[in-house]
């Protein structure tokens, strides 16, 4: 039963490598980029799909015409005169439609309605029509802009590409308008410049990621308006305002800055309407103002998920000149965000983008003649029919002739049942027959033409909505072989890592059995705490199959973590000598254990009540909401108190190191500097509702980063070289629970005490650095949970120290793992993308960097799991007080020291990752696969990265520290 350290390391690396390969294959197989039709819509889009081959075989020179000729060709082929020759697209980032249009038949809240009087007057007078345009998840800017201009629903992983936007090469509205000679100007979010490089005649882009800026980011757009409205050298003007989204990120929907920002947007609408639309009564030039939002926001101001608040985007048309009857008709309309692309394409006289799944918004075409409205519906139907034919091989509507008119022998409509192919063909043919019938009756001026017209409209509408819904919800084909190989690789990895954990437990058991003079025959029976940990893992795995349990996962972790520590307390009580008076040392030990567990349970309960996490119950009262209502002064006070206590607790933990106090003085002073700078940053720059993005705040944050990095890395690198080497007989003053001494041959060759002390100082340096960093980056309301996490780690280490060898090491590491998961949800995180804190990811960054912002966002999101993982360095120091190496074998020593802290997190994560991968595969056709299960899987992948980072830090620290100390001790002992 002896496995060398090299073989153990190679097996661990093999398991991790297999897991990475399997995870990569599964992710890219399950979340592929959605397939699209190649090419761009052209003249063939104005003919029925049966004519595509005829159009492609036409003279290429007829298709590749100059812009002016191509525009005239499109007008001739479409048969619909373009209604507008200018478009102003005003994007108000993050604006929920209910702020402008209300919700559930009720008008918007008074504070919002009063902030936008001009817009409300346009709606009340019928001069504007608003739509609740439902956005598809993920509700982040880049994929939502793609949906608006292309009508296509992107892949789920577009949420990752949102931070590194690439040029958009698929067919889209801007490319079509550019092809007919439109001149375009863009002011605002530079995402447009990255998506459409080279299309804009003029532009002034700003970064969308400095979310602390709520003022200048919009002034940079508005300052150009006067000049642009006085010019006539553009056809499309894009204005992308970011300030409202930033207000949401900083202070939430109810921020004091929200109403002033809405008033500012209202003034922009008024300026545009009065200067470019209301003055166009001569019918010589027609300009359409369209106010849209890319997504909404949650109560906390975040977005990314699929809740109503996040998907409720706005589509407001101003300048259609078809006055609606009443306010309700102007505001209580619904559409989909992908419907914007086909609607604008038909209004502006260009082909519908090739991959659009949208349906024209019928209320915007009321001014058109009857035949033009039916023609628009027909063009929209042909476009969707092409997509259906590309994705349904069995779709063969054989009776559709080249001119698109139904079979002349067919005189009526039929009920549409059967397979999806038959149903869609039937729905289209019904609409085509009714359209043909209306045409023939209108030409012959026969009665009932109006009835046929209404029936044709209804039939087209039914086909379009059915086809669009099917295309939008259809899961893309997944490569079965790739998914199977990925799952198999993860299963094999899980088997390897779990087997290594079991092997470590078996080896430790045999070593302990040899050390005991009278080993208990029942020594390795499963105890209650071990059984409970296994049960928790099984419960978590089973809960993954329920969408509701995934949304409310925090309940499980909080309950199971508290229960596990109570079971450890029960175990401690059972080990007390029955019927005997405790010695002073035993009484002291018992008191420390009971106090430690009590602190853990109390802190856990406070953290449980700090944030009402999850998805469905966020409206329930909690401590954070109560503090928010109390005011920002109370939050700042808690920040300052938490910062001071974190520094004090960290310095106290460092002071427990008894050898060479000068080291503690230097390390402690080094961490006092960033701690004091943090308090200065909180006092001077941080506020709960809005934080400053001034140069001073950025510079101070950068100084804190630099000092923390230098101090932490310096402690890791230099401490093993500065630690005093003991050559005389090792005393065992620190060994409270063991009377055995270190073998004499070990004391000269094995740097055991030096290693123990070095890991203690380095580990607390890691923890203190991480806590100070989190106090800088986290939302101010999360400062107390960071302090409580630190207290829980201190209490856990104290309990594990006094528990000695009575508690199985893999159970202790599992308890820390559970603690990290509970802390993750206690910081306000959930399994939806909307709870990711974007605001803190730009603290201390003067120039936008996707890499740096992404790293900071990762650090904020996974603060608790990484804190627990780096605390494993201290755990190794704590447990080293209780076991003595039996051989002068560095491999055995490192394996015993690093085995459980590294392998148990890897093993637990591999079980959960593999189980949820299988669950996601089984749920691929579930209704909530994209809104619940897929976001959760992204979080699981993020936790996997956390485990790799944490285990790497622990392993590197242990190996490096041991290697340096062993080399120093060997050199020093040889000199003696």
TrEMBL record:
Gene3D superfamilies: Alkaline Phosphatase, subunit A. Pathway: Glycolipid biosynthesis; glycosylphosphatidylinositol-anchor biosynthesis. Keywords: Endoplasmic reticulum, Glycoprotein, GPI-anchor biosynthesis, Membrane, Transferase, Transmembrane, Transmembrane helix. Residues 531-629, 772-960 form the GPI ethanolamine phosphate transferase 2 C-terminal domain. It is a multi-pass membrane protein. GO terms for cellular component: endoplasmic reticulum membrane. It is found in: Endoplasmic reticulum membrane. CDD domains: GPI_EPT_2. It comes from the Eukaryota. One of its GO terms (molecular function) is CP2 mannose-ethanolamine phosphotransferase activity. The chain crosses the membrane at residues 482-505, 526-549, 637-655, 662-683, 703-723, 759-777, 783-802, 814-843, 855-878, 898-922, 937-962. InterPro entries: Alkaline_phosphatase_core_sf, Phosphodiest/P_Trfase, PIG-G_N, PIGG/GPI7, PIGG/GPI7_C. GO terms for biological process: GPI anchor biosynthetic process. Its main location: endoplasmic reticulum. The keyword Endoplasmic reticulum applies. Belongs to the PIGG/PIGN/PIGO family. PIGG subfamily. This is GPI ethanolamine phosphate transferase 2 C-terminal domain-containing protein.
